[in-house]
Amino acid sequence: MPENNFPKLHNASWPGVVGKGPDSEPPISIDTMIELTANAEVDGVKFDGFDLFVADPHLDIDSNDDSIKKMADKARAKNLEIGSLVAPVWAGTGGGSAMGSREERNQFVTQVRKACIIGKKLRDLGIRPNGVIRIDSSVDPHSWAADPVGNTKLIAQTFREACDVAADYGESLAAEGEICWGGMHGWKTMVNTLEAVDRPNIGFQADMAHTLLYLLGYNKEDERILPKDFDWSDRATLTEGLKTVTAALRPWTIDFHVAQNDGTVFGSGSHDKTGRHCQATDPNGKLDIAVDAGHWLRDENGILTKKIRHICWDGCMFPNDVMMQPKTWNDILGAMIKVRQLHGWYEAP
Protein backbone atom coordinates (compact mmCIF):
# COMPACT_ATOMS: atom_id res chain seq x y z
CA MET A 1 0.00 0.00 0.00
CA PRO A 2 1.31 3.50 -0.80
CA GLU A 3 1.87 5.86 2.13
CA ASN A 4 -0.99 8.12 3.17
CA ASN A 5 -1.00 11.43 1.29
CA PHE A 6 -4.08 12.91 2.98
CA PRO A 7 -4.74 14.96 4.94
CA LYS A 8 -2.19 17.39 3.56
CA LEU A 9 0.29 18.68 6.13
CA HIS A 10 0.41 22.45 6.59
CA ASN A 11 2.42 24.76 8.78
CA ALA A 12 0.95 27.98 10.16
CA SER A 13 2.56 31.26 9.17
CA TRP A 14 0.88 33.38 11.88
CA PRO A 15 3.20 32.33 14.74
CA GLY A 16 5.48 34.85 13.07
CA VAL A 17 3.12 37.68 14.05
CA VAL A 18 0.71 36.48 16.77
CA GLY A 19 1.92 37.58 20.19
CA LYS A 20 4.73 39.60 18.61
CA GLY A 21 5.05 43.36 18.39
CA PRO A 22 6.18 46.42 20.34
CA ASP A 23 5.56 44.91 23.79
CA SER A 24 7.01 41.51 22.88
CA GLU A 25 9.43 40.30 20.20
CA PRO A 26 9.72 41.54 16.59
CA PRO A 27 7.49 39.80 14.02
CA ILE A 28 9.03 37.20 11.73
CA SER A 29 8.43 37.95 8.04
CA ILE A 30 6.25 35.80 5.83
CA ASP A 31 9.25 35.09 3.60
CA THR A 32 11.15 33.66 6.57
CA MET A 33 8.13 31.62 7.72
CA ILE A 34 7.73 30.16 4.21
CA GLU A 35 11.47 29.40 4.07
CA LEU A 36 11.42 27.63 7.45
CA THR A 37 8.37 25.63 6.34
CA ALA A 38 9.84 24.66 2.98
CA ASN A 39 13.18 23.62 4.49
CA ALA A 40 11.68 21.19 7.02
CA GLU A 41 12.04 17.54 6.03
CA VAL A 42 11.69 14.22 7.85
CA ASP A 43 12.60 10.96 6.08
CA GLY A 44 12.00 12.58 2.71
CA VAL A 45 8.57 14.00 3.67
CA LYS A 46 8.01 17.76 3.56
CA PHE A 47 5.16 20.13 4.40
CA ASP A 48 2.50 20.34 1.68
CA GLY A 49 1.56 23.95 2.40
CA PHE A 50 0.89 26.69 4.93
CA ASP A 51 -2.10 28.53 6.36
CA LEU A 52 -2.01 32.31 6.18
CA PHE A 53 -2.79 35.31 8.40
CA VAL A 54 -4.35 37.93 6.13
CA ALA A 55 -2.94 41.02 7.84
CA ASP A 56 0.23 43.08 7.93
CA PRO A 57 3.06 42.39 8.03
CA HIS A 58 2.31 39.09 6.24
CA LEU A 59 -0.40 39.93 3.69
CA ASP A 60 -2.32 43.21 3.82
CA ILE A 61 -6.09 42.62 4.01
CA ASP A 62 -6.43 45.33 1.35
CA SER A 63 -3.91 43.69 -1.00
CA ASN A 64 -4.35 44.27 -4.72
CA ASP A 65 -4.26 41.52 -7.33
CA ASP A 66 -0.50 41.91 -7.83
CA SER A 67 0.22 41.39 -4.12
CA ILE A 68 -2.06 38.35 -3.97
CA LYS A 69 -0.38 36.86 -7.05
CA LYS A 70 3.05 37.49 -5.49
CA MET A 71 1.97 35.53 -2.41
CA ALA A 72 0.76 32.68 -4.63
CA ASP A 73 4.06 32.76 -6.52
CA LYS A 74 6.04 32.62 -3.25
CA ALA A 75 4.15 29.52 -2.22
CA ARG A 76 4.45 27.87 -5.64
CA ALA A 77 8.19 28.57 -5.81
CA LYS A 78 8.61 26.47 -2.67
CA ASN A 79 6.22 23.74 -3.86
CA LEU A 80 3.71 24.71 -1.17
CA GLU A 81 -0.02 25.32 -1.34
CA ILE A 82 -2.01 27.81 0.74
CA GLY A 83 -4.87 26.58 2.92
CA SER A 84 -7.04 28.31 5.50
CA LEU A 85 -6.91 32.06 5.98
CA VAL A 86 -7.22 33.94 9.27
CA ALA A 87 -9.48 36.99 8.89
CA PRO A 88 -8.29 39.96 11.01
CA VAL A 89 -11.61 40.57 12.76
CA TRP A 90 -10.23 42.36 15.84
CA ALA A 91 -10.47 46.06 16.62
CA GLY A 92 -6.70 46.61 16.38
CA THR A 93 -6.62 45.21 12.85
CA GLY A 94 -9.66 46.97 11.41
CA GLY A 95 -12.43 44.71 12.72
CA GLY A 96 -14.61 44.96 15.79
CA SER A 97 -16.46 43.01 18.44
CA ALA A 98 -19.04 40.55 17.08
CA MET A 99 -21.36 41.65 19.92
CA GLY A 100 -20.42 45.33 19.76
CA SER A 101 -22.11 48.37 18.24
CA ARG A 102 -23.62 48.19 14.77
CA GLU A 103 -20.48 49.90 13.46
CA GLU A 104 -18.17 47.39 15.16
CA ARG A 105 -20.17 44.47 13.83
CA ASN A 106 -20.13 45.97 10.34
CA GLN A 107 -16.34 46.26 10.58
CA PHE A 108 -16.18 42.59 11.59
CA VAL A 109 -18.21 41.52 8.56
CA THR A 110 -16.19 43.80 6.27
CA GLN A 111 -12.95 42.09 7.32
CA VAL A 112 -14.49 38.70 6.63
CA ARG A 113 -15.57 39.89 3.18
CA LYS A 114 -12.05 41.10 2.39
CA ALA A 115 -10.55 37.79 3.53
CA CYS A 116 -13.05 35.88 1.37
CA ILE A 117 -12.13 37.97 -1.67
CA ILE A 118 -8.46 37.10 -1.15
CA GLY A 119 -9.36 33.46 -0.54
CA LYS A 120 -11.28 33.21 -3.81
CA LYS A 121 -8.46 34.88 -5.75
CA LEU A 122 -5.96 32.40 -4.32
CA ARG A 123 -8.31 29.56 -5.33
CA ASP A 124 -8.62 30.99 -8.82
CA LEU A 125 -4.82 31.12 -9.02
CA GLY A 126 -4.77 27.38 -8.32
CA ILE A 127 -2.69 27.64 -5.14
CA ARG A 128 -5.48 27.07 -2.59
CA PRO A 129 -7.26 23.74 -3.20
CA ASN A 130 -8.89 23.65 0.23
CA GLY A 131 -9.29 25.62 3.44
CA VAL A 132 -11.65 27.91 5.31
CA ILE A 133 -11.77 31.45 6.68
CA ARG A 134 -10.98 31.45 10.41
CA ILE A 135 -12.88 33.79 12.75
CA ASP A 136 -13.64 34.32 16.42
CA SER A 137 -15.97 36.61 18.37
CA SER A 138 -13.34 39.32 18.89
CA VAL A 139 -14.52 40.02 22.44
CA ASP A 140 -13.47 38.86 25.90
CA PRO A 141 -15.43 36.38 28.09
CA HIS A 142 -15.94 38.92 30.89
CA SER A 143 -17.82 41.31 28.58
CA TRP A 144 -19.88 38.42 27.19
CA ALA A 145 -20.82 37.29 30.71
CA ALA A 146 -22.67 40.55 31.41
CA ASP A 147 -25.54 39.17 29.29
CA PRO A 148 -24.83 35.63 28.05
CA VAL A 149 -28.16 35.16 26.26
CA GLY A 150 -28.32 38.57 24.61
CA ASN A 151 -24.65 38.62 23.69
CA THR A 152 -24.75 35.14 22.19
CA LYS A 153 -27.67 36.29 20.03
CA LEU A 154 -25.64 39.29 18.86
CA ILE A 155 -22.57 37.19 18.08
CA ALA A 156 -24.75 34.71 16.18
CA GLN A 157 -26.32 37.54 14.20
CA THR A 158 -22.88 38.89 13.25
CA PHE A 159 -21.67 35.41 12.33
CA ARG A 160 -24.81 34.91 10.21
CA GLU A 161 -24.12 38.09 8.27
CA ALA A 162 -20.49 37.01 7.83
CA CYS A 163 -21.63 33.55 6.64
CA ASP A 164 -23.93 35.10 4.06
CA VAL A 165 -21.04 37.20 2.76
CA ALA A 166 -18.72 34.17 2.73
CA ALA A 167 -21.26 32.14 0.78
CA ASP A 168 -21.07 34.69 -2.04
CA TYR A 169 -17.41 33.69 -2.48
CA GLY A 170 -17.86 29.95 -1.96
CA GLU A 171 -16.20 30.10 1.46
CA SER A 172 -16.98 28.55 4.84
CA LEU A 173 -16.18 30.14 8.18
CA ALA A 174 -14.54 28.25 11.03
CA ALA A 175 -14.85 29.66 14.55
CA GLU A 176 -11.81 28.75 16.61
CA GLY A 177 -12.70 27.83 20.16
CA GLU A 178 -10.36 29.53 22.61
CA ILE A 179 -10.82 30.38 26.27
CA CYS A 180 -10.08 34.05 25.52
CA TRP A 181 -13.06 34.65 23.19
CA GLY A 182 -16.48 35.46 24.61
CA GLY A 183 -19.22 33.03 23.63
CA MET A 184 -16.53 30.56 22.58
CA HIS A 185 -14.69 30.13 25.88
CA GLY A 186 -16.33 26.88 27.02
CA TRP A 187 -17.15 23.74 25.06
CA LYS A 188 -20.91 23.85 25.70
CA THR A 189 -20.95 27.60 25.11
CA MET A 190 -19.16 27.07 21.79
CA VAL A 191 -21.79 24.56 20.67
CA ASN A 192 -24.58 26.97 21.71
CA THR A 193 -23.03 29.78 19.66
CA LEU A 194 -22.62 27.58 16.57
CA GLU A 195 -26.19 26.28 16.85
CA ALA A 196 -27.51 29.84 17.16
CA VAL A 197 -25.89 30.90 13.87
CA ASP A 198 -27.98 28.48 11.82
CA ARG A 199 -26.01 28.63 8.58
CA PRO A 200 -24.65 25.70 6.56
CA ASN A 201 -21.26 27.32 5.95
CA ILE A 202 -20.11 27.76 9.54
CA GLY A 203 -18.17 25.23 11.54
CA PHE A 204 -15.64 24.78 14.29
CA GLN A 205 -11.89 25.05 14.06
CA ALA A 206 -10.51 22.62 16.61
CA ASP A 207 -7.06 23.37 18.00
CA MET A 208 -5.79 20.57 20.22
CA ALA A 209 -4.05 23.00 22.60
CA HIS A 210 -7.10 25.21 23.04
CA THR A 211 -9.69 22.47 23.36
CA LEU A 212 -7.59 20.82 26.10
CA LEU A 213 -8.19 23.97 28.17
CA TYR A 214 -11.95 23.44 27.77
CA LEU A 215 -11.55 20.37 29.99
CA LEU A 216 -10.12 22.53 32.77
CA GLY A 217 -12.95 25.08 32.72
CA TYR A 218 -10.66 28.11 32.43
CA ASN A 219 -12.96 31.15 32.16
CA LYS A 220 -16.01 28.80 32.28
CA GLU A 221 -15.83 26.90 35.55
CA ASP A 222 -19.32 25.41 35.18
CA GLU A 223 -18.14 23.58 32.04
CA ARG A 224 -15.09 22.03 33.67
CA ILE A 225 -14.73 18.28 32.97
CA LEU A 226 -11.53 17.31 34.76
CA PRO A 227 -11.41 17.65 38.58
CA LYS A 228 -9.54 20.61 40.06
CA ASP A 229 -6.87 18.36 41.52
CA PHE A 230 -6.55 16.34 38.33
CA ASP A 231 -3.54 14.01 38.16
CA TRP A 232 -2.21 14.23 34.60
CA SER A 233 -0.87 10.69 34.84
CA ASP A 234 -4.50 9.49 34.88
CA ARG A 235 -4.62 8.89 31.15
CA ALA A 236 -7.97 7.06 31.21
CA THR A 237 -9.81 10.04 32.74
CA LEU A 238 -8.10 12.46 30.35
CA THR A 239 -9.13 10.31 27.39
CA GLU A 240 -12.75 10.23 28.56
CA GLY A 241 -12.70 14.02 28.91
CA LEU A 242 -11.31 14.44 25.41
CA LYS A 243 -14.00 12.11 24.09
CA THR A 244 -16.71 14.21 25.76
CA VAL A 245 -15.49 17.44 24.14
CA THR A 246 -14.87 15.91 20.73
CA ALA A 247 -18.25 14.16 20.68
CA ALA A 248 -19.92 17.57 21.12
CA LEU A 249 -17.75 19.54 18.69
CA ARG A 250 -16.54 16.99 16.10
CA PRO A 251 -19.79 17.19 14.09
CA TRP A 252 -19.08 20.91 13.69
CA THR A 253 -15.36 20.60 12.97
CA ILE A 254 -14.27 21.71 9.49
CA ASP A 255 -10.68 22.78 10.20
CA PHE A 256 -8.10 21.21 12.50
CA HIS A 257 -4.96 22.39 14.25
CA VAL A 258 -2.48 19.86 15.54
CA ALA A 259 -0.86 21.26 18.68
CA GLN A 260 0.58 20.49 22.10
CA ASN A 261 -0.27 22.07 25.47
CA ASP A 262 1.16 21.79 28.97
CA GLY A 263 -2.17 22.46 30.69
CA THR A 264 -1.47 26.13 31.41
CA VAL A 265 -2.46 29.49 29.95
CA PHE A 266 -0.16 32.06 28.37
CA GLY A 267 -0.31 35.35 26.51
CA SER A 268 2.24 37.69 24.96
CA GLY A 269 2.21 40.89 22.96
CA SER A 270 -1.39 41.93 22.31
CA HIS A 271 -2.69 38.36 22.57
CA ASP A 272 -4.76 37.59 25.66
CA LYS A 273 -4.03 34.53 27.79
CA THR A 274 -5.16 31.34 26.10
CA GLY A 275 -4.13 27.70 25.98
CA ARG A 276 -0.34 27.62 26.01
CA HIS A 277 1.11 26.07 22.89
CA CYS A 278 4.15 23.87 23.51
CA GLN A 279 6.73 22.51 21.18
CA ALA A 280 5.87 19.14 19.70
CA THR A 281 8.50 17.38 21.81
CA ASP A 282 7.94 19.31 25.08
CA PRO A 283 8.19 16.80 27.96
CA ASN A 284 5.53 18.80 29.83
CA GLY A 285 3.00 18.37 27.03
CA LYS A 286 -0.18 16.72 28.31
CA LEU A 287 -1.40 15.31 24.99
CA ASP A 288 -0.33 12.26 23.04
CA ILE A 289 -0.45 14.25 19.82
CA ALA A 290 -0.84 11.42 17.32
CA VAL A 291 -3.33 9.42 19.39
CA ASP A 292 -5.41 12.38 20.59
CA ALA A 293 -5.72 13.84 17.08
CA GLY A 294 -7.75 10.74 16.31
CA HIS A 295 -10.61 11.92 18.54
CA TRP A 296 -11.14 14.70 15.98
CA LEU A 297 -10.31 12.86 12.77
CA ARG A 298 -12.32 9.69 13.47
CA ASP A 299 -15.99 9.34 14.41
CA GLU A 300 -17.34 7.85 17.64
CA ASN A 301 -16.88 4.36 16.15
CA GLY A 302 -13.27 4.98 15.24
CA ILE A 303 -13.98 5.32 11.52
CA LEU A 304 -12.03 7.97 9.58
CA THR A 305 -14.33 10.85 8.66
CA LYS A 306 -12.04 12.16 5.85
CA LYS A 307 -13.79 15.54 6.30
CA ILE A 308 -10.53 17.38 6.94
CA ARG A 309 -8.50 17.64 3.72
CA HIS A 310 -5.55 19.35 5.37
CA ILE A 311 -4.32 19.68 8.93
CA CYS A 312 -2.26 22.58 10.22
CA TRP A 313 0.28 22.83 13.01
CA ASP A 314 -0.39 25.74 15.36
CA GLY A 315 2.26 26.82 17.83
CA CYS A 316 1.79 30.48 18.69
CA MET A 317 3.87 32.64 20.99
CA PHE A 318 7.04 30.58 20.79
CA PRO A 319 10.18 32.69 21.36
CA ASN A 320 11.80 33.85 18.13
CA ASP A 321 15.04 32.00 18.86
CA VAL A 322 13.03 28.75 19.04
CA MET A 323 11.21 29.53 15.80
CA MET A 324 14.44 30.21 13.92
CA GLN A 325 15.82 26.73 14.65
CA PRO A 326 15.31 24.18 11.84
CA LYS A 327 14.97 21.42 14.48
CA THR A 328 11.76 23.06 15.76
CA TRP A 329 10.06 22.63 12.40
CA ASN A 330 11.45 19.15 11.79
CA ASP A 331 10.07 18.06 15.17
CA ILE A 332 6.70 19.59 14.28
CA LEU A 333 6.67 17.97 10.85
CA GLY A 334 7.57 14.66 12.47
CA ALA A 335 4.55 14.95 14.79
CA MET A 336 2.30 15.81 11.84
CA ILE A 337 3.54 12.80 9.87
CA LYS A 338 2.65 10.52 12.79
CA VAL A 339 -0.88 11.96 12.82
CA ARG A 340 -1.25 11.22 9.10
CA GLN A 341 0.20 7.72 9.49
CA LEU A 342 -2.41 6.94 12.15
CA HIS A 343 -5.43 8.83 10.81
CA GLY A 344 -4.76 9.52 7.13
CA TRP A 345 -5.53 7.90 3.81
CA TYR A 346 -4.24 7.61 0.28
CA GLU A 347 -5.72 9.15 -2.85
CA ALA A 348 -4.23 8.61 -6.29
CA PRO A 349 -2.96 11.93 -7.72
Compose a concise summary of this entry:
The protein has 349 residues and is of the alpha/beta class. The chain has eleven helices and ten strands. The strands form two sheets. An eight-stranded parallel beta barrel has the order 1-2-3-4-5-6-7-10, surrounded by seven helices.
Question: What do you see in this structure?
Answer:
With 349 residues, the chain is α/β, with parallel strands linked by helices. The protein has helices at residues 30-39, 65-77, 102-124, 141-145, 148-168, 187-197, 208-214, 235-249, 289-297, 320-323, 326-343; strands at residues 8-12, 49-53, 81-86, 133-135, 173-176, 202-207, 253-258, 260-266, 274-278, 310-313. The protein is 39% helix and 15% strand. An 8-stranded parallel β-barrel has the order 1-2-3-4-5-6-7-10, surrounded by 7 helices. A two-stranded antiparallel ribbon has the order 8-9. Helix 3 (102-124) runs parallel beside helix 5 (148-168), helix 5 (148-168) packs across helix 6 and helix 9 packs across helix 11 (326-343). The longest helix has 23 residues, at 102-124. The relative contact order is 0.15. The mean pLDDT is 95.
Question: What is the element layout, followed by pairings?
Answer:
Blueprint: E1 8-12, H1 30-39, E2 49-53, H2 65-77, E3 81-86, H3 102-124, E4 133-135, H4 141-145, H5 148-168, E5 173-176, H6 187-197, E6 202-207, H7 208-214, H8 235-249, E7 253-258, E8 260-266, E9 274-278, H9 289-297, E10 310-313, H10 320-323, H11 326-343
Parallel strand pairs: 1-2, 1-10, 2-3, 3-4, 4-5, 5-6, 6-7, 7-10
Antiparallel strand pairs: 8-9
Helix pairs in contact: 3-5, 5-6, 9-11
